[in-house]
């Protein structure tokens, strides 16, 4: 049974640092990454305490992910292949 993406994603815990204008992930999303719903990705700032990849979905939601996770690497490759 498929559920709307919104139910899967109490997602990205992004924190905007005051007076810096950057976003950092406080924790990683632990669910399955919905590859077909992704439109882009970016790395968080090197100034953030935790390295993270942030995926953006078609619903403009943000998913904080562990850059070392194999599923995250697969999703990045998928998005890069779409751009070629």
TrEMBL record:
Name of the protein in its database record: C-C motif chemokine
Domain Chemokine interleukin-8-like: 21-79
Organism placement in taxonomy: Eukaryota, Metazoa, Chordata, Craniata, Vertebrata
PANTHER family: C-C MOTIF CHEMOKINE 17 (PTHR12015:SF111), SMALL INDUCIBLE CYTOKINE A (PTHR12015)
Keywords: Chemotaxis, Cytokine, Disulfide bond, Inflammatory response, Secreted, Signal
Signal peptide (residue range): 1-17
Molecular function via GO: chemokine activity
Gene Ontology biological-process annotations: immune response; inflammatory response
Record-linked InterPro entries: Chemokine_b/g/d (IPR039809), Chemokine_CC_CS (IPR000827), Chemokine_IL8-like_dom (IPR001811), Interleukin_8-like_sf (IPR036048)
Native source organism of the sequence: Neotoma lepida
Subcellular location per the Swiss-Prot or TrEMBL entry: Secreted
């Amino acid at each position: 049974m498929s559920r709307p993406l919104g139910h899967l994603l109490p997602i990205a815990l992004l924190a905007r640092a005051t007076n810096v204008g950057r976003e950092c992930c406080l924790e990683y999303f632990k669910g399955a990454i919905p590859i077909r719903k992704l439109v882009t990705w970016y790395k968080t700032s090197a100034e953030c305490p935790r390295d993270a990849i942030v995926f953006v979905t078609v619903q403009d939601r943000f998913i904080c992910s562990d850059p070392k996770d194999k599923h995250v690497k697969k999703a990045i490759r998928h998005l890069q292949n779409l751009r070629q």
